[in-house]
Amino acid sequence: MKRLLLEKLIEWKNKNERKPILLDGARQTGKSFLLEKLFGAHFEQVIRLDFLEQPALANLFDGSLNPQDILDNIELELNVSIDRHKALIIFDEIGECQSAINSLKFFSEQCADMYICASGSNIGLLGSFPVGKVELLELYPLTFEEFLWASERPPLIKAFEQNKMTAVAHDKLFSLLLDYYYVGGMPEAVKAWFEAESNTGILERTQSVSQIHTALIAGYERDFGKYFHNSADKVSAQHIQAIFHNIPIQLSQNIDDSVKRFKFKDVIKKKTRYQALAGPINWLDKCKLLSKCQPIDCQPSSPLPALAKENIFKLFLFDIGLLGNMLGLSYKEHRDQGFNYKGYIAENFVQNELIAKYGSPTYSWEYARSEIEFLFKHDSGNIFPIEVKSGKRTRAKSLGVYVQRYQPEKTIKLIGSQGSIDNPDALVLPLYYVSKLEQFLK
């Protein structure tokens, strides 16, 4: 599977000097595959050390964190000769070996010519890592564009790349988006979906994806207990699980309306305030299993973080396919645009696309009964409102209120139909082009 992050890794490889890469991301998002198979294809030699699979590899760092001593130990352990100018060395699941984490500082300072990459699914939970000595990257589930690549449909990929808005292109792209709503971006689910496309009926395909989703969710739940004692917040696995399962429930309560602020009451018994739930929410955030959107209740201006409140936010699930599975939504329901849940599905989709492209958190706007789902800060410093409309009904009263109050230079509506850029100051784009906002705002 082609991944967008590969371009950044190749740019890093082409530098004359480089810090080690530290690749963060939720479990099963494809970190190992990206580094070893996709990025590794650009090297003559790839050496991967998996500290979760082989805990004894921690012995390679005993006694000395000098890079040359570590390289000597790796050569002895694996019976290989390492060409430091041609080899990609991967420290996989580095969170399981604190000595390996500590060694990154010395590789950064003494071996800037080498290609050292580390990855882990619990980077956010680490007690410490060499800040300033690594280049931190984050890998998310496959975006819609990556899902499109995985579909192996060259004409449709070309239409997407050219920002086509013809009726034919829209029908094909929107149909694939509805598939993406069901499958999501977890690599195992995407692989199963497209591999079975030519020789398996839709019932078997959907059942296969559903089973993968269920197994992934069960795996995350096991992790809640596994990492509990390593968590700086020292919160119980039961509380983490309660938050994790409550996010889809609260999202689904937003019928034909914008997603509301996350409510703390009734999530965990006898805990009704933010401070009581902050621990498990932050744990899930650090593990990349949720993301925040922080509402602004005044005129948006830069910097946006200065206008946000710590205890007021919306919560979204990190993968759209797992969201649907946790709510028991069928493939037919995702395909049927008559269902009234589409609003929060579309909003969670937009959130995930923005996070993957620009990082977290995102921001929204509220005033009285008016709500703008997202605010997009352009490189120019301008802040543009984004209204999300999942279906063909595109009237946006809140957008009118926002325009009347603040007169933004441009507005953006993301909709479930064809879209139009006839008015460059009031863009109306199909939902699937959210990752290309910068191109449309030029």
Structural features, described:
By secondary structure, this protein is of the alpha/beta class. It has two domains: 5-138, Rossmann fold, CATH 3.40.50; 154-440, no CATH class. The protein is built from 16 helices and twelve strands. The protein has helices at 5-13, 31-39, 67-78, 98-110, 144-151, 154-161, 167-183, 187-195, 202-226, 237-252, 274-286, 320-326, 331-335, 342-358, 397-406, 437-440; strands spanning 21-24, 45-50, 87-92, 115-120, 135-138, 290-296, 314-317, 362-367, 370-377, 383-388, 411-415, 426-430. The strands form two sheets. It has a seven-stranded mixed β-sheet with strand order 7-6-8-9-10-11-12, with helices on both faces. Strands 2-3-4-1-5 form a five-stranded parallel β-sheet, sandwiched between helices. β10 (383-388), α15 and β11 form a beta-alpha-beta unit. α9 packs across α12. The chain is globular, with a radius of gyration of 23 Å. The two termini are 30 Å apart.
Short description:
With 442 residues, this protein is α/β, with parallel strands linked by helices. The protein has helices at residues 5-13, 31-39, 67-78, 98-110, 144-151, 154-161, 167-183, 187-195, 202-226, 237-252, 274-286, 320-326, 331-335, 342-358, 397-406, 437-440; strands at residues 21-24, 45-50, 87-92, 115-120, 135-138, 290-296, 314-317, 362-367, 370-377, 383-388, 411-415, 426-430.
